[in-house]
Amino acid sequence: MDEEVEPDNENVNSVLAQESSELLRIISGQTTAVIMELCQMRPREGSCDMRLGPGISSATHHIESLLDYYIMAKAADCCNFLQSVCMLCENIPMHLESRLISVAGYANNDLENCSPSVTDGKTSSPLSEKQLIKRPRIGNHWEQCIAAVMSLLQRRWERLSERLVMDVQLESVWVSLRTANRGRDRPDQTPGSAGKGGRTPEPDGDYGFMDSRVTLENFLKGCAGKVTILVGSAGSGKTLLMSCLGQQWARRLAPIPPSHLFVLLEFRQLNLLSRPLSLSELLFRHYLPLKGCKDEKRAIVDYLISNPEQSCWVLDGYDEFHSKITKQELHIQPLDAETSLPVSDLVSGLLNRQLLPGCTLVVTCRARHASDLEGLPDKVGHLLEWDRHQIKEYADNFFGLKGHSSHKTIGLQAADLLLSSRHLVAMSSLPGLCNICCIFLEYLLLEASDPSKREIQRESGSKARNKAKSSEEKEVHIPGGRGEKGSRGESYGQKGDQRRGSDDILTDGTNGRAQPTPTEVQIPPTLTQVYLTVLCAFLRRETESNQGSKTTSFPQSVVSTLSRYRSELCELSQLAWRGLEGSKILFMKEDISPEVLDFSIRTGLFSQVELRREDGELVNSYCFNHLTLQEFMAALRIMTSADVSDTQLKTRFSLKTRWTTKSDHKTVFTDSLHLYVCGLASPRCTEALVQVARTSGESGGQSWVQKRQTLVLKLLKNLCQSNTLTGPKILELCHCVQESQNHQLAKQAVDARPTLELRNIQLLPTDIDALAFVVSSAGDNGIGLDFGACSMELECFDVLPRCRYIHSLSFRSRKYGDKFAEKLSSILPNFTTLRKLDLSDNNLKDEGIKHVADILHKPPKLISVKLGRNNNSLEAVDYLIGKMSSCLNIQNLNVDGRKELTVTLSQNSDLTSHKKSEPTISLLNQNWCKPEMQKLANSLAHFPALSVLDISGGHLDVETLRTLTKFVPKFKVTQKIIANDCCSSVEGLVVLTALLSDCPAVVELHIRLQSPVQVSIVFSGGREKAANEKSKILCLSCCDLLPAHLEKVWWSLGTSSDLTLLDLSSNCLGKKGLKKLLEVLPRLSSIQEVNASNNGIDCEGVAMLAGALCSHTYLTQIHISGGDREQVILNYCPDKREAKQHLKMFRINNSSLLPSNVTTLCRQLAQCRSHLKLDLSHSLLTDQAIANLLKLLPKMTSLQRLNVSHSIASTSGAVILVRCLTVSRRVTSVELRPQSESFIYFGNEKVEEASCRLTHCSLKGDELERLLESLHRGPHLSHLNLSSNQLGDEGVKHFLDSLQKLKITSHVNLSINGLTQQGVLDVARTLCTCNHVSGAEVSLGAEQRCLIWFTQCEGCVKTLSVRESCLERGHLIRLAEIVSTCPSPIHLEFKNNMLQSDWITDFVKLLNNSQRGVSVSIEEDWIRSEEAVSLLCRCLDLRIDIHTIRVNNTTLQLSLMKSTELSEDSADLNPFIATKKIGLVECAIDGHHLASMESIIIKCSSLTELDLSHNSLGKEGAEFLCSVLPLLPNLTSLSIGSKKTCVAVVEKLSEALLQAKTIQCLNLSGHVISDSAAQVMASILPALKSLNLSHCEWSAAGGLQLLIALGKSVLLEGLCLDSLQLNEESRVCLAHALRNINSIRSLKFNKTATATGPSKENEVLHLLAATEGLRLMEEIELDGWRMADGGIEQLSRLLPVWTELRKISLSQNLISDQLGDRLLEALKRCSHLEELHLSSNSLGDLSAARMALVLPSLTHITVLDIAENKIGEEGSVNLAKAVSCLKNLTKLNLTSVGTSELCDVAASLAQCPLIQDVGLGWNSCGDKVAYELARVLPLCQKLTTIDLESNTVSVFGAEALVRALQSCPAVQLIRLWRNNVPPSEAKRLSQRDRRLNFSST
Length: 1897
Fold this sequence. Notes:
The structure is a single chain. Helices cover 39% and strands 15% of the residues. Helix 42 (1099-1111) runs parallel beside helix 43 (1155-1165) and helix 43 (1155-1165) packs parallel to helix 44. The longest helix is centred in the N-terminal third of the chain and has 24 residues, at 451-474. It is elongated and about 165 Å long. The N and C termini lie far apart (124 Å). 48% of the residues are buried.
C-alpha cells in the first residue's frame, strides 16, 4: 500500500525520517498548545506522558518520541500527522513544506483503506474526522485533474521561457507590503499609490525612500486560505510571475501545496464569457477542457466544493476586466456552485467568500484599480520596480554580455547609455519597458555604427524573424498570453529577433572598427521623442534596402523612416485611436488589413495572443507590444488626422496622474496619452508629424499640423495659468511642459505659482527632473519648492540641484532624519539662489542638525534656515552657537524649546559692507539654573559681537539673575537682552536696576512683574530713535511697587544722573509714594518725563502735583487723566536754558472735579509765575465749580489759555463762564459750546477788544438776559457768535433790541436760530435803528444764515441780503416801509425768494428814495425772455426816477436817483422818464420781444446807454433798434454783442448807426459784417471812443476797409479785437492804425496774433512795436499770442513807458522763467498796476524770486493770477513773501502752480485783509496746507471763496477747515472735489457745514 501512495517513488515514512531533525527544530519552536495538539494525535498505546514539564528539554523529549513513533507508523497515519504539522506549525521553509505536503497528499489514494487508529472511541487526529467528511470516494479523478493542470501550466511556461532574456525567480522579486483594510464601513486610511485618493501614506525609514519589503516567495507563503491582492504597474510582470508561480506549483516548488488545485484565470479571457455559467462550466469548458464523463467532472467539483481550502485561484489582470466587483455586506449568503451566474458574479462570489470559502485567492491588478477591491483582501502587496542593478543585469543579458564576448563593446555602451538617461531608467524600472529600451538602444547604436553592420544585422535579423515566425505558427498559445513576446504584460523581455544581440545575429561586436561612444549617440530629451525613435527601431526591422546610407541624427533619421512607412503608420494609429476610444487593447484579424497585420507582427509592434471563445474555439488576437505604445500611436493619430476633432482632443486632454481617487474614471490604459500629445506638440516633432499627416489625407500638411500643435500648447497654457491645481496635478503639468520643451510655458507655470507645494506623494527622479525643467524657467523672480511628507528615492537628491532659481526650499516629514540631512547637505551648496530653507517638523537629531550647520556658509544667498520641531537636544544648539563665531554670515539664532529653531543669515555680499549687523540669539523656554547660566554667560562673554540675546520663558531666581548681571558688562551686546517671564520678584527687579549704574552700555531697562512678565535690557545701539548718548530710561511698570520699595530702587539706581525717563506706572505708590517721588525728582538732573499713572493718587495728590508744577523750575507739564487718575505724566523742559521762557501746562482730563477740588487746584496754580495753560477738558464742571473757577481767575495772572472742552454740561454753566469777560480784562476770546470744544484765551495785559462765541445752547428767558447783561458790562467785541441757540423770532428780537447797547465792531452771527419771515423783518429793521450796522444777511433756507455786519464809518452804503426766505407780498411791503426810513444809502439783494412779478413792481413802487440812494437786485429763475422785458417795462412805467435798470441773466438790477438829481435833470422832461441806462443782457430775448419796449423807451430821452448783448436780436431786433435810435438823442453807448454770428443785424443797423451821431461806444462783437456794412461802418469809426469787434467775421476786403478807417479814429480810447482772424495784410494795416492812435487806454487783442512760425513771430513783433506810442495805456490783454522770448523782450522794453497801466494779461504766451524775470523787472515802473495775469506759462523759481522783489512796490495790485506755471518749493517761499506785501489783494489764483508746498503762501494770506478769492486747486496740496488755511481763515474777514479741488487733503484737513469756518461767516464756498476724502466722510462734513463742496459743480 505504501507503494501506491508514492507517485514520485518517495516513501512518506522515509521522508519523515530524512526531515526529522529539521522538524524537531521547527516543532520545538511552536507554542505549547500546538505541541500538545500534535502529541494528542498519537494513539494511547504509543503515547507518552502528556504532562510537559517546565523547560525546553522536557518538550524536546516528547517531540523526539512523537517523531520516532510516526516514522514507524502506518503510511496513512504518517500522512495525517504531516498534514497536521503543515497546517498547525509556523515558519516552515517553503521547500520543506512543499515536500511534506506533496508526499502526504499522495501517500494514500484511497482513504477507505486507511482506517484511523481509534482508542476509546476517539480518532487519533483532530483532523481525521474532518478529512473523512471532506474527501469523497473519487479515486484518481482529483489527482488526474491536478496532473492535467500541471501539464498545462508547464507547457505554458515552456513557451514563455523560450523567449525570456533572463530567468524568473520568485525569490528575486521584491514586494512592498501594504496594509489591507478589512473594515467594510471604515473609510480608506492609506490613499496614494494604491489608488485610494490623492495622498500617499508616508513610508517607513529615515528618508521615506524604502518601504518594508519581502520577496514574492515569502509574500505568497502566508496566503493560504486568504484573499491576496498583488498590485503592479503595467509592464511590471504580473502575468509572467503568475505563470511562473503556476510552473513552480507544477514542479512542487511553489508555496502552494501540489495537492491543491491551481486555477489560473485571466480577466481578459473572462471578458469573452457573456452568458451565465456555473463553476463547473468555468473550470472544464474555459480553463481545463478534460476528456471524461460528466460524473467524473461532477465528482471533482463536489470534492472542490467540500474542500475549498484544497484549491488556489489566481485571477490575473483585474484592470482589464470589463465588469466591476460587487462588494457584499456582512453576513452574506453563500452562492450555489451549480447555479449559472454571470462571470462577474462568480468572481465576486469568490472574493466575497460566497463561493469556495477558505480557498486561496490571488488577484493581480494595477494600483488604480485596487480601490475597487477595498475591504476584500487579507493581504496586499505591491510589486517593486527594478533598481539600477537589475536594469543593468537585464541589459547585460539582452546584449549577450554573459557568454557572448562578441557583443561586449556594444553591450557596454548600451548599458552606459541606458543608465545615463533618466527617461530610459524610469522606463526600464518596469521589465516590460526595459526590453523596449534595449531595442531602442540597439537601434541607436547600430545607426551610429558602420552601415555594413546594419546590413549584417538585417540579414541575420531576417533569418531570426523567419525562424521566429515559423515557431509562432507551430506553437499553441495559452489563453491570455500576457507574458508573451512584446505583450503589454511582458516582464523580463524575450529572446529571438527582439533582442538581436545573440550569436545568430552578430558574429562580431566590433567588426574591426571602433564603436560609437555614449557621447556620440544622443538620447532624445523627452519621453515622446524616445517613443518616436522606438517606433523607428521597430519599423527598421522591415528595411531590406538602403544599404550604406549615411546616418542622420534625430529627427532626420526618424523622419525618413516614418515617411517610408507612412501608410502602415496611418492604419496602425487609427487602430490605436479606436482602441483608446473603446477601451480596447485586443484586436481581431478583421479589425486590421492582412498586410498591415503581417507587417506589425514582423516588426514586433504586435504580439499574438490566443483566446478561447465562449463556444470553446481557440482564436488568435493581437495587441500592441505595450499599452504605452498603443497610447503613443493614438497620440500620433490625434496630431496627424482631422478624423480626431478639436473637441475630441480637448475632451481627451486632461492631467491624469498616477495618484488616483475612487471617483476617478479608470481605464485599462496607463493614461499617458496627454504626455505624448504634449511631446508631439514640440516643434522638433513637426517634420515627423507632417510625414504621417500626408498619408492621413491632410491637405494642409505642415500648416495643419502646426495648427494642431498650437491648440495643444494653448490647452497647456490654460493649465499653466490655473491656480486650482493640486500637487499631483502640478507635478503632472511639469511632465507635460517638459515633454513640450516649451520654456515659455514653463515660465508661465511658475509665474502663476510662487511656490510649488507637493504633499504626501511619492516622488521619482523623473518627477524631480520635470520639476527642474519648469522651475529653471523662473529666472530672477525665483520660485519655492515645498515638499510635505513626500517619499523620495535617494537618486532624487542627485537630480534636485538641476532646479535652478530656487529661492525657498522646504522639507517636512517625520521620516526625514539624519541621513536625509547628510544627503541634503551635500547638495545644498549647488543652490546658488536659495534664500530660505525650512526643515521644520522632521526627525533630525543632533547629528543631522550639525550636517546642516556645517554648510550654512556655502549657499551664497541663503538668509533663513528653520529647524524647529525636530528631535535634537541642546547639544545641537551649542554647536550652532559655536558656528556663529566662525560663520560670519549667521545673523540670528532663535530657539524656542523644541518648537522652533531658526537660523537667519546675511548675504555674502553684505559681509564686505561696513554696515554689517551683529547676530542675534534667542534661547526661549529653557530651564536655567545658576551653573547653566554661568556656562552660557561665559560663552557669550567671549562672543565677538551680539545684537540681541533673548532668554525669555525660563524662570530665573535671584541668584541666577545676579549671575547674569555680573556678566552683562562683559557682553558685547549692541541692542538688547530680552528676559521675559524670567523675573518674578521685587528683589530681582532691584538686582536688574543696578545695571543702569553698573553697566555704562545699558541705556534702557524695562521691567514688568505682572503677567505677562517682561524684562528688556536695552543697549545704546538698540534704541529705535536717535537720542542723547548719556540719556537713560528706567521703566518699572506693573511691578506692585510700594512706597517702601522706592528706597531700594533709589539705592540700586545709585547716582544715575543720566536718567531721562522714569516709568513707575501701574504700581501701588499712593500719596506717600508720590511724595517720595517728588522729593527725589529734583536730584535727577537729566529727567525729562516721569510716568506715575495708575498709582492710586487722590485729590490731595493732584494738589501736590499742581504745587510741584509751580515750584519746580524745570517741570513744564503735568497730564492727569481718568477718574482714578489712570494717567499721571510729568514732563520736564528738555533744554534747561530755556526753562524760564517755556510755557507750562496743567492738564486734568476725564475726571470729576468737585467745586472744592477746583478751588484747591486753582489756588495752587495761582502761585505759578510762568505762563500757564490749564486744561480741564472732559471733566464735568458743575455751575458751582465754574463759579469757583471765575472767582480765582483774576488771581491766575499767568494763565494764557483755559480749556474746558466737553466739560460744560448746561447752558447756565456756559452763561456763567461768559462772565469771565467782565471778571478778567485779559480775556481775548471766549469760545463755548456745551459738550464740545470750549476755550478761553488770555492776553498778557488788559485788552481793549475781545470776541465771544456761545453756540448750541438753549438761550431763553433769564439765561439770555444774564448773557446780555454780561455782554453789556464786558469789553468791546470784534464779533459775537450766538448761532444754534434756539433763540427763535422772540429771542432774536430781544437780542436785537439790545444791539445798540453792545459794543461790537465786526459782526454778529445769529444763524440756525429758527427764524421766520418775521425775524427777517426784525433783522432788516436794525439797518435803520443801529447806526453802526452796515449790512445784514438772512437766509431761511437749508443753511439758516443770519449775519449782521458792523462798521465804524459814517454814511456808508448799507446792504440787506435776503435769500431763500419765501417772502410774500406783505413781507415785501413791510420791507419797503422799513428801508424807506433808513437814513443811509441802501442796497437790497433778493435771491430765490419765490417772488412774483406783481409783488416786485409793488415793492419798487413803494420804495422811498428822498436824499439817499437806493439800489435793488432781485434774482428769480423766471426773470428771462419775455417776462424780463415785461418786468423792466412795468418798472419804468411805475417810476420815472430809475437811474439804471437792467436784467442780467435772471437778475433784475435797478437803482433810483436821488431827488436832487431828478429835479436837476428831469424837471423839464416831464412826463418823460429820466432813466440813463437800460440793459437786457443774456436773458434769452428774441427780436420780437423788444417791440413792447418801444412805447416805453421813446420816453427815455435821457438814455445814454443801451445794452442788448448776448441775445438773439435777429432782423426784428435790428428793425427795433433802427426805429428807436433816432428818438434817443443822448445815447452814447450801444452794445449788441452776440455769442452767435448773425449777418442781418449789422447789415440792417449800419445805416441807422450812421444817423446816430451821439454814439461814442459801440460793441458789435460776434456779428458778421458784410462788405457793404463795412463800408458804412468805416465812416462811423472815426467818431468812436470805444470799439469792440471781437469774434466778428468779415471778408478780407471788408476787414481791410475797417482797419484803414480804424487808423483815422484818433479819439479812440478802448479797442477790443479778441479772436479775430487777420491775414498778413490786415496785421500790417492794424499796426499802421495803432501808430496813428495815441489816445488808446485799453487794448484787448486776446488770441488775435498767434506766433506759430518765424514769419508769424515777426508779425507779432511788428504789432507790439506799433503800441510804442500808446503812452496812456491803462489796460492791455494779449492772451494766447504765444509770443515767446522775442515778443516778451519787445514788451519788456515798452512797459516802462506805460506808467498808468492798471491791468496786464499775458496768459498762454510761452514765457520762460528767465523772460518772466525780465518782464517782472520791467513792471516796476507801472506803479498803478492793479491786475497781473500770467497764467499758463513756464514761470519758475527765478520769476517767483523776482516777484518777491517787485510786487511789494506795486501796492495797488488787487488780482494776481499765475496759475498753471512751474514754480517749485523755493519759488513758493518767495511767492509767499510777495503776497504778504499785497495789502489790497482781493483775488489770488495759484491753480496748478507746480508745487504742493504752499504752506507759506497760505500763511501769507493773513497779511491780506481784503482777500476774497483764493485758488489753490490741482497742486497735490495735503493736510499741511489745509491746516494753515484753517489757521488764517479767521484773520481774513472778507474771504468768500477757496478752491482746493484736486489736491490730497484728507478728512483730517477737511475737519480743520470745518472748525475754522465757525469763525468765518463771510466764507461762502470751499471747493474740495477730488481730494482724499471718502464719499461717506464728504457727506458727513457737508452736513456739518454746507459751504464745503465736494462735487465737481
